[in-house]
From TrEMBL:
It is an enzyme of class 4 (lyase). The modification N6-(pyridoxal phosphate)lysine is found at K80. This is D-cysteine desulfhydrase. Its cofactor is pyridoxal 5'-phosphate. It comes from Panicum hallii var. hallii.
Amino acid sequence: MAGVPATLSASAAQIGGFLSKKPYAPPSWATHLSPMPSHTFSLGHFPTPIHMWNLPNLPEGTEVWIKRDDLSGMQLSGNKVRKLEFLMADAVAQGADCIITVGGIQSNHCRATAVAAKYLNLDCYLILRTSKLLVDKDPGLVGNLLVERLVGAHIDLVSKEEYGKIGSVALADLLKKRLLEEGRKPYVIPVGGSNSLGTWGYIEAIREIEQQIQRSADAQFDDIVVACGSGGTIAGLALGSRLSSLKAKVHAFSVCDDPEYFYDYVQGLIDGLQSGLDSHDIVSIENAKGLGYAMNTAEELKFVKDIAAATGIVLDPVYSGKAAYGLLKDMAGNPAKWKGRKILFVHTGGLLGLYDKADQLSPLAGSWRRMDLEHSIPRKDGTGKMF
């Protein structure tokens, strides 16, 4: 039977609410948006913490705080879980027995979707984009793939060339048609969970930030900074910040497509909620893709390592690593733009993606040595002589 078993749902509602289905009531400032979700599933650990981030070499008087959405869970983590809370509720409401979604070979979204589906007793089908050289080979058990395969996701590989020619929507529709012919009831979630329904995940996150600020009188943010990979996160943050009491300026660093693509895509998402707003007015998008999606320069990887060593915050190389790199580079080049600003950086997770970069990170990682045991281990008889 599709969806969460009634006994699990009832028990979850009694013990903390995790994995329970709940009626959704939007923030007061978002009640005019439409369509409005009716329910969510509790899939993440919220609220995620906000704390000061002691980054080096900031402009004078500038503070950077960090919203730890990387701590929203381990298997089901990062910004994806917020969108999936709404998308999975819709899938179950429609009677789906399986989920289809699409992404790169190390997609955080696909891994999170596979876990969420299994939590809710649904099968998951993943269409993963890889290189032409690897499309006919076992994809291995590295990073996100390890979790996906452990939870039993069905994986279909396509080459980047096939993906570019056919497109994610047509690929998902092709698989959906095959599953329908087999008598299944598939529900398609777009790349990154980024549609108008998924956008509610970060509208809700703004309410969470608003409540955290209200509990701390000295916290007020001028800017919100975040990575952008599919558009849904920045659409929700920008729309929520504009409509709520926050009024922080949202800055997005795109890690794949160009800014103009994302302005158009975000426009489609907020038009889908009948917001009446212009994407150019609510978010500033800058290009941070570098060599390309999920590709890193040695300088970017060194930055991830240096920030981890300096602050203890481990950034993923695909999303937040590039966004933080872009932010600090902009601060160095335009210090007056950021001087005296109070900035909230949203860490969208993706730690498992680091495993795919292990070979590139190896020369940068911390040193090691064999422990020197000479003249240090006394004999059991206490004479002090070596064994």
